[in-house]
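Sanity check

After download, print the first record. It should look like this:
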Amino acid sequence: MILQHIIETIYSKADRYATQYWSYRLTDNWLELTVNPKYLTDDELNRVALIHCGKVLKAMDCEALDKGYMLHIQTFPEINKSRLVAIIRKLKMKTECRPGENICCPDSDPDLPLVTLLKNSAAGFNLELLNVHNEPVFNNQYVETLPASENQNEINCLTLCSFSDNPFIWLKIGYWLEYLEQLKKHRSDSKDIQVDFALPKQDRAHLEDPQHDHNYRQAVVQF
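Expected structure tokens:
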């Protein structure tokens, strides 16, 4: 069963996918992804759990595409069931993927500057990367969209932002984080990217910047 093979492969990578936060249940026709109960009562722990669930969903999608399948992923299908994150079903693709085809990072053009690639990929998940010009201490931090330094001896520091701060956004952060993991297979300059998404709620506060819609900080990105 393809779904079983995919989820067992992902679950075997406990450190990468933080399996303490989530569980799964297989039926004959679908797979259910759930947050473990201990992470439901605290909003901050629930956010972390859902970010990791987003990574799992993106990884499942990539694994399925690589094997010639598509997944139908329905997130938060039942509002009254807070544990249930997604129901996943498989569909056969009409065309097979070519071996080695770069399915999950189709825009990983080696000639595209890494900063540009990261910003484009974040936008694909309805997120935005903003450049920062001081140390990543968030209270009263000045954030603006200026070109990141091209000097390789300097550290690029960016802030991942969203237009809201809710469970759907937290899943998308996970999608993007897994995209970065996939990207590292194709771009050597992406291997030193570090992302810290463990921001407390007060540091994710609204930026009140009229120039941007994505005014909630979600993570610090450095490379």
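If your output differs, re-run the checksum step. Summary of this record's structure: The domain at 2-92 is CATH 3.40.109 (NADH Oxidase).
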